[in-house]
């Protein structure tokens, strides 16, 4: 429990630094792209804090936004985690990516990213699953 609290405190500090960095680099697409990558890595690290042993304890959410609109992808997270903080960080990332896409006139493939049907556990890690019959196969 102490480790989880310490980790969440470090995430809070990282968010403050992220906000300060974001303000100081306005106008630099490469630096903003690096911040997006860093924030995604933080989100991915949070999701990986819990071992996947029971698929019923896992959820998924959309993350990011394509330039044409719609989610860039999906990410699994443990229901036992601080879901409010996790989903807030995902929302921050998505908003930042939407702003980045508009600001820098990003172009994407505009393909709709279908939501997965479920999460399964493989080797202690969550894996998103798309059922073939729902994908037109």
From TrEMBL:
Signal peptide stretch: 1-19
User: Its domain of life?
Assistant: Bacteria
Which keywords belong to this entry? Signal
Name listed for the protein in its UniProt record:
Lipoprotein
Q: Whose protein is this, by species?
A: Parapedobacter pyrenivorans
């Amino acid at each position: 429990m102490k480790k989880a609290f310490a980790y969440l405190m470090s995430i809070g500090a990282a968010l403050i630094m992220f906000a300060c960095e974001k303000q100081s680099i306005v106008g630099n697409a490469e630096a903003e792209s690096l911040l997006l990558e860093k924030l995604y890595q933080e989100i991915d690290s949070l999701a990986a804090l819990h071992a996947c042993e029971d698929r019923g304890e896992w959820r998924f959410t959309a993350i990011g936004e394509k330039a044409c609109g719609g989610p860039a992808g999906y990410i699994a997270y443990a229901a036992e985690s601080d879901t409010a903080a996790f989903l807030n960080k995902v929302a921050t990332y998505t908003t930042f990516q939407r702003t980045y896409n508009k600001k820098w006139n990003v172009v994407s493939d505009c393909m709709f990213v279908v939501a997965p049907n479920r999460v399964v556990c493989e080797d202690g890690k969550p894996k998103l699953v798309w059922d073939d019959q729902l994908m037109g196969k």
